[in-house]
Amino acid sequence: MHPEVAAYVLGVLDDADLQAFERHLDSCERCQRELKELQDVPDLLDDLKLQPSASEDDDPPISMSR
Ligand SMILES: [Zn+2]
Hints:
The protein is mainly α. It has 4 helices and no strands. The model has no long low-confidence stretch (mean pLDDT 80). It holds the Pfam family zf-HC2.
């Protein structure tokens, strides 16, 4: 797959790359299909991110003393 597709879905492309990719997307059926598949991924990434960050937040019970 083109790495730009994932970057586009994750919203990490800067303006120039974004415009270039959207222009490419217009003429690239493969990227259009990959884009549709990848649009489900951010949800999965959110789930993965929540697990470690949640355990960090829950970690210090002592900070309650503030
Ligand atoms: Zn493409």
